TrEMBL record:
Keywords: Kinase, Transferase
Keyword Transferase: yes
GO molecular function (one): heptose-1-phosphate adenylyltransferase activity
Annotated GO CC locations: cytosol
Name of the protein in its database record: D-glycero-beta-D-manno-heptose-7-phosphate kinase
PANTHER family: BIFUNCTIONAL PROTEIN HLDE
Matches recorded under Pfam families: PfkB (PF00294)
Keyword match Kinase: yes
Residue ranges of domain Carbohydrate kinase PfkB in the record: 18-318
């Protein structure tokens, strides 16, 4: 399985002209990084001496960050609170090349910005502190979002639903978004939640991991045969163009519904340092490259290689065009004769 170098270069050239609309749950990720030299006298827990701290985009924000990293412009729909975390999240989005007019943020007076604080010592996560209130959107808020979507969808090449089940993507909003996108002939890709699994009908592709897909179907998915059966079962209910199931150390499997073809792509990760955000990288790179005209199979291969790169980095990391090309070449996936 190889990608023609000419095809890759054509897609690279088109990425800067591509706009992807990201809808989902915005999260602010905070990292407190330090070292442990003693145990607390107050309780048998380590004392972390914080030497550095940073805030980055999490949730659907990490999808936006991944788009920026490969040179794609993003249109962002999400919810934040009227608080310092919300101000910081908006500022980081703007610094990630998102234009002010492409930032459609619902600013809640009652719901705080979701903030996840990870405490890291000697490259190991000691603990995580979550601050969030999971409250579904009101019907009035949904109506306003759909009104804005009708305008912004015109500029988008594709739409990503990044569902973390934090209240923004309600069942009715999910279905309305897909209806709007199909009417405008825009492809929709979904990083799903099990609780909403069978709501994502008539989309281009869904990218659950094998645990999520198995839980949705009520069975364990391990072998290629089990994965293939699951893809067909899900596709019968949702009628997507394709299904992708990511499988950890076993890589990923892709199913094209219309041709009934499967591709089982082995993992390329040499060292897994942190799996945070790997799913975001998969759906981002896949969507962006398909939007440039790349085939389902080739875009899946690019997304698999991209995930293999980011799991070797700390935190919700991203990948670049040059890293993708280098990895494809080093792994023997790049056909340089064309």
């Amino acid at each position: 399985m190889k990608i023609k170098k000419s095809s890759l270069k054509q897609s690279f050239a088109k990425l800067s002209e591509t706009k992807v609309l990201v809808i989902g749950d915005l999260i602010l990720d905070e990292y407190l990084i330090g070292s442990v030299e003693r145990i607390s006298p107050e309780a048998p827990v380590p004392v972390v001496w914080v030497r550095n701290e940073k805030q980055t985009l999490g949730g659907s924000g990490n999808v936006v960050q991944n788009l920026t990293s490969i040179g794609v412009n993003g249109i962002v729909f999400g919810r934040i609170g009227l608080d310092k975390a919300g101000e910081n999240l908006e500022s980081i989005l703007l610094s990630n090349s998102v234009n002010k007019e492409d930032l459609v943020l619902l600013k809640s007076k009652t719901i705080p910005t979701i903030l996840k604080t990870r405490i890291i010592a000697s490259h190991q996560q000691v603990c995580r502190v979550d601050r969030e209130e999971i409250v579904p959107l009101t019907k009035e808020e949904e109506a306003e979002i759909l009104k804005q979507l009708q305008v912004k969808i015109k500029d988008a090449s594709a739409v990503i639903l990044s569902d973390y089940d934090k209240g923004y993507l309600t069942p009715s909003l999910i279905q309305s978004i897909i209806t709007v996108c199909n009417a405008e002939k825009k492809i929709v890709t979904v990083d799903p939640q099990v609780s909403h699994f069978f709501l994502y009908q008539n989309i281009h592709i869904m990218t659950p991991n094998h645990h999520e897909a198995g839980k949705a179907l009520g069975k364990k998915l391990s072998s290629d045969a089990e994965i293939e059966t699951a893809c067909r079962e899900i596709s019968e209910k949702l009628t997507p163009d394709a299904m992708m199931i990511t499988r950890g150390e076993k890589g990923m499997s892709i199913y094209e519904r219309k041709t009934d073809l499967f591709y089982h792509i082995p993992t390329v990760a040499k060292e897994v340092f942190d799996v945070t955000g790997a799913g975001d990288t998969v759906i981002t790179t896949y969507t962006a490259f398909v939007a440039t005209g790349m085939s389902i199979r080739d875009a899946a291969l690019v997304s698999n290689v991209s995930a293999g790169i980011v799991v070797g980095k700390l935190g919700a990391a991203t990948v670049t065009q040059s890293e993708i090309e280098e990895a494809l070449r080093n792994l023997g996936y790049l056909d340089e004769t064309t």
